[in-house]
Amino acid sequence: MCILSAAEGSNPRGKHPLRQSTHLRGIHSRGEHPRHHQAQRPKDSSSLPSSPAFRREEFEGKLRDTGLELEKDEDTKIPGVGFVKIHAPWTILCREAEFMKLKMPTKRVYEVKQSTGVMEKISSLVSKVLEPLHPHVEEHQPKNIKHLSHTFSREKQHLTETDVNTNVVVLSEKCKQFVSFFNVFRKYFGEKIGLYFAWLGLYTQMLIPASLVGVIVFLYGCATVDDNIPSMEICHPRNNITMCPLCDRVCSYWKLSTACGTARASHLFDNPATVFFSIFMALWAAMFMEHWKRRQMRLNYEWDLTGFEDEEDHPRAEYEFRVMQKSLSKDQKSQHKIGVTFAIVFGVILYRISTKAALHMSSNPTTRNHVQLTVKTTAAIINLVVILILDEVYGAVARWLTVLEVPKTDKSFEERLIFKTFILKFFNAFTPIIYIAFFRGRLVGRPGSYLYVFESYRMEECAHGGCLMELCIQLSITMLGKQLIQNNLFEIGIPKLKKLIRYIRSKQGAFQEEERQKKLQRYEADHFLEPFAGLTPEYMEMIIQFGFVTLFVASFPLAPLFALLNNIIEIRLDAKKFVTELRRPVAARAKDIGIWYNILRGVAKVAVIINAFVISFTSDFIPRMVYQYMYSPDGSMHGFVNHTLSYFNVSHFQEGKETMDPLQLGYPVEICRYKDYREPPWSTTPYEISKEFWAVLAVRLAFVIVFQNVVMLMSDVVDWLIPDIPKDISLQIHKEKILLVDLFMKEEQGKVHILESRTSAVGKENCSSGNNNNSTMAHQRSGLHTNSTNSF
C-alpha cells in the first residue's frame, strides 16, 4: 500500500512553508494485494511484469521521471515493512504550485478597514452623529492588515517574501485550549479538514441559544404542571372512571387515576410552549444554514479559496478496469434495502406485547403498576442496541452497493457512498421513533373489535396521556446512547484497540517494544496509528444528531442541550484523535463541505413537516383547542378528559377475549371507557365514529398545512434577509480586485518603460556607430583631397 502524506511535525524555523523538502512515505509489506509492493525484491520473479517488485520498480521510475527524489530507508526497525522517502525539490514544488494556482502573499501590504462587531458599528454611528461637533478630531480606529494574494508564478518569485519566521505550533497544546483552533488544523491538515472543524464549531455555537430556549420551554412545563386542568382531572381522588383492559384475558379493568404520573409527565413536553419551540427551531435551522454560508465565504477569503476551482477528477482505477473487461452493466445497480430495520421494529413490537402481558400476570402489585414504564424503557434500550449494531452493518452494505455501481470518479464514488450511508443510517435511527410518533395507537381498533397480529397479538395502545411521553423516552435513550457509546467511547476506544492489535502483531515483547519505541523515527511510529478513513463518519454523526435536534424537537425540547454538551466533548475528542490516534492524512483543498450541505437543507425541510404532524397528530394540542373553542360550555378545559373517552358495554367483548379477573376492582363492571371519538352503545349507530372525530381531524389537517407554509415562508424570509456573503468580505474582494488591477497596470507600465529604454539605448548605439563611420569616411575623403592637391 502506498501512503502519500506530508512531512510530520511543523516547518523548520526561518524557512518558507513550501521550501522544505516534503517527505512522502510509501509503506509496503509482504503478503498483501498485488498492488501492495514488497520491501525486498524477489530473486526469481522480479523481472516478471506481473510481479509486485516489477510494478514497484516501474512506479518508482515514474516518480523519478517527474523530478522527485527517492530515498530508501535501509535501517527500518519494523519487521516486514519498508519505507521510501520521497523528496520534492523546490523547483518541482514551484511547478506544481503554479499548476494548482496556489496563491502566495505579495510584498506589498494593503491596509483594509474591517468591522469587528456590533459595538464598532454602534460606535461608528455615534461618531457620524457627533462628527459636526468635533470636525478636527482624527478618528483612531483599529485597522486590520490583510495580505493580498494572487496565483503563484515562477516569473514573479522575486515578489514573495524570503525571510518568513515560522513559529512551531504544537497542535496538542492548541487542542487543550478552549479556543477555535480550526485555523491551526487548516494549516496542518488542509482546508478540507479545517472546514469540518469550522462547521462543527459554528454548529456548536448555534446550539447555545437553542439550548437556552429548550430549557425555558421545559421549565415552563414544570411550572404549569400543577395548573393543568386535564392532569388535575385525571389525578383527582374522586375520579371513578373505569377504563377497559389494555390486553386480552390477563389484563383487567383499571382506574384512570392510576395514570396520574404519566399524565403529569406528558404535560412537561406536551404544552402550548412546544408549538412555539417547534417554530423557533425551524427558524433556527434556517439561520444556522445562512450563518454557515457566511462563515464559509469568510473562510474562503481568509484561506485564499475565492478563486479555487476543483481539479478535473480522473476516472477511478476500478472503473477503468471494468471498462477494459467490458463487464460494466446497469443490472448491477441495487436498491437500498432497509427491510431489516422494519423487521427489527416489528420484533420489538412483539416483545412489547408479550412482555406487557407477562407483567400483567405478575402477582406483585408494584410490578403491575409499573408495567408501562418497564416495557417502554426496556424496549427503547433494545432498539438502541440494535441501532448500534446495524449502524456498522449498514456502513458495510452501503460501501458494497456503491462498489457494485462502479462510479466513474472518486468524487462520484464518495457522494454516492455518503448518500447511501445516510439513507440507511437515517432509517435505522429514526424508524422506531417514527413508528411511535405516527403509527402506534392508531391501528388498534376498539374494544370488541381489536386488530391482531398473527391472530393472537393485539396491537399496542398509547397511554391516556398520549404517545408523546413514550416518544420522548425513546428519543432521549436513542440520542444519549448513540452520543455516549458510539460517538465518544467507540471513537476513542476503537483506534486504541486497533493500535494495540498492531503492537501485538509486531511480535515484540512489552520491554522490547518500549526500548524499540525510543529508537523509532516519526514515520515508523506513525505506522502503528490508525489510517485516516475520511470525514464521512464524523459528518454522519453530526448529521444524525442534527436530525434528533430538529426532527422531533416538539416532543423533546431538551435535545439541543444534550447535543451541546456532547459537542463540547466531541470537538476535543475529534481534535485529539486527528493529532494522536490517526495517521496524518493527505492535505486536500475544498471550498465547501460538499454534499453534506444539501443533506442538511433536506433535513431542515423535512423537520418542518414532521414537527407539524407531531404537534397535530401525536400530541393533544389540537383536541384541546377544538374542545376549548367548540365544545366547552364555559370556554375552559374542564370536562376535556370525559370528552375524549368513549363508552363500551363489556357484554360486547368477543368470546374468549374478556378478562379473567372482572372483579379485580372489587365490584362488577358493566360499562368501561376507552380513548376514542365513537358513539356510545345506546345510540342508533353504536361504536361508529362520531362527529367530534371528523372535526378534530379537519383541524389537524388544517394546522399541518398552515404550520408548514407559515414556517417555510418565515424560513425563506430569513434566507432572503441574511446575505450569503458578508458585506465587509465583498467590499474587500472588490478592493483587492481594484488594487491588483492597479498593480498589474504599474507592472505593465514598468515593462513598457524598460522596453522603451532598451529601444532608445539601441538607437543611440546605432546613431553613435553611424556617426563614427561617417567621421571616418570624411577623414578618408579629406586625406584623399589633400594628397590630390599636393600632387598638383
Automatic annotation (TrEMBL):
InterPro entries: Anoct_dimer, Anoctamin, Anoctamin_TM. Residues 53-162 form the Anoctamin dimerisation domain. It holds the Pfam family Anoct_dimer. Residues 54-71 have a biased composition (Basic and acidic residues). Residues 766-792 have a biased composition (Polar residues). Residues 186-736 form the Anoctamin transmembrane domain. Residues 29-40 have a biased composition (Basic residues). It is found in: Cell membrane; Membrane. It is a multi-pass membrane protein. PANTHER family: ANOCTAMIN, ANOCTAMIN-1. This is Anoctamin.
